[in-house]
Amino acid sequence: MGRTRNTRLEAVVQEWGLSQRQLAARFRAVAAENGATELLRYDHSRIARWIGGATPEGRAAHILAETLSRGLGRTITLTDIGLATDDAADPQTPTWSVDTLATLATLGSTDMDIARRQVLAQSAYSVAGLALPTEGWWQESAARARTRKPLSKHTVTAEDVTSVREMTAFLSRRDQQRGGRGVGRAALVAYLRTDVTELLGGRFSSDGLRRDMTSAAAELAYLAGWTSFDAGEHPIALRWLTLATQLAEEAGDAPLAGHVLRAMAHQAVDLHQPKEAVRLAEGSLSSRRYAEACWREKALLGVVHARGLAAAGYKKQAAEALNRAESDLSRAPQDGDEPARVWFFGEASLAHETAAALRDMGDLKGAEQQFKRSVRTRQTPFKRTHSVTLGYLGEVQVQQGQLEAACATWHQALDTMTGVQSGRARQTVVQMRRALSPVLRRGGGPAADLDVRARAVLADR
């Protein structure tokens, strides 16, 4: 079967007005700037093959999109040049991008396309092949961002940065209250794909303003990843979190990069890849990421590290990490100057993560106490996390033979889930029914009534 001519790429090349030989020369120059030495031998015949329907390999597609973006003075995505589908064909192995702006636009387009999103969401999750770049690579990435040519005539202002941060704060609070699924997330991705992409491609009066905008974009990309994680769309989440880490490093915001790597570690723990979770958590604690973080964020990084260690079977190290996280949080000021992204992390969150670590270490009694502490101290707005905590509490209670207490706890969890749109909350209901299954086979009682409610909740999601 012959190839289908890539008419989208052909049209964009024709719009620029360069010959294929001239375009190949521009392509090699951009490849050299990005350190893509494997592409420096590409000549006009390669351009002709791509227009003819061949698929660029490795980083070539992103370099081509960046080359065309520079030449036309606007963002050209992989979708615009007919290459996005192939780019999304292997979503379980994301890579560190050579052009975060093009990646942002392409990933946003993929996420907003229902069919392509489903392909991503249904793929296998794996973080094993995603090695963290060296410090030198991060520095080169930041240098490329500093010298990136503007793709629009808009001059970015401090008010633009504030607008992005305000939108992030609003959507973050909605996520905490309702979960990562639903219309709120669609609005988040659309905003990233359009407004934020345009702002990152704008003109900056100072490097400080560029870093501020890049940091704001990184936080919003992180939120897109976190909401995907909460919705159970793990390959998509991994893509967003990878991009958010790189944007944070481009901004020189080491604590934010650590915050995102911590989320990737959390995801790996939940998906039963403990060794990868430890590797990512150690990355979140390395270099300036932990050293420059505020005390509240230090505690958050540390407790997720403890969870990875516990899941991997390193009980002693996990206990030490838990103690250090508790100590770090105790030093956090009540009304200090802290990043907005850590506003949610307090005693209840620390107790929840500590309980999960103790559970994985086999200390069910300790886990029960910490889950109860989390339930007791959590504030009202955190419905999603509260329902998950109650689900986990019921699970450790039933594992200790406390069936009546577990059923009461799970009824509370189902009450709390009203209005919550969360894949993680839904999974606790699945686990609930699984734990009840042996009891149901022996007869009805309170477990039967609970199972009826649980089935109704699952049918509604």
UniProtKB/TrEMBL annotation:
Top-level taxon: Bacteria
Its protein name is: Tat pathway signal protein
What is the species listed in this Swiss-Prot or TrEMBL entry?
Streptomyces marianii
Lineage runs: Bacteria, Bacillati, Actinomycetota, Actinomycetes, Kitasatosporales
